């Protein structure tokens, strides 16, 4: 199998025809709105127009919504966008750990690209400085969809031999 490296193969960021769904947490909505706009801008620049944009109450609900979208089908990749700001209790760690594990579980269970755009920060200032994570997630999901397609094409070619 050929080694496909992003820096050598801009086709890995070609999103034309991709069906990408985004799920945005409403908790810390000023931040998640900025993440969403960053992601949408980058997806459009890469050639994709998201097929769905849904919102959920918070980061803990993101995995459930992504799981439902993956089960429903009709999407090539998913992006989760959220913001968890540390408070004075252990709740921060729980939300961060559980939501991240849930996103990974969705990706592995359904064999679908999932970009984790849940930023976890100490304060609002750090959150505002990280809203470009939305664009990063757009690139990640597109690259991973293209990687999955390349792996499937390679497997099919191997079976044909």
List keywords for this structure.
18% strand; four-stranded parallel β-sheet; 5 helices; 161 residues; alpha/beta; Rossmann fold
**What gross morphology would you assign?**
globular
Number of domains: 1
Structural class: alpha/beta
Unreliable runs: none
- Assign the CATH class: Alpha Beta
**Overall strand count:** 4
Task: Find the CATH superfamily.
Answer: Lumazine/riboflavin synthase
CA distance, first residue to last residue? 14 Å
Contiguous helical run count: 5
Mean pLDDT: 90
Reported CATH architecture: 3-Layer(aba) Sandwich
Radius of gyration: 16 Å
Q: How is the largest sheet built, in terms of strand order?
A: 2-1-3-4
> At the third CATH level, what is the topology name?
Rossmann fold
Helical amount among residues, as a percent range? 40-55%
Give the helices and strands as they follow along the chain.
Answer: EHEHEHEHH
- Sheet of most strands: 4 strands, parallel
Percentage of residues in DSSP E strands: 15-25%
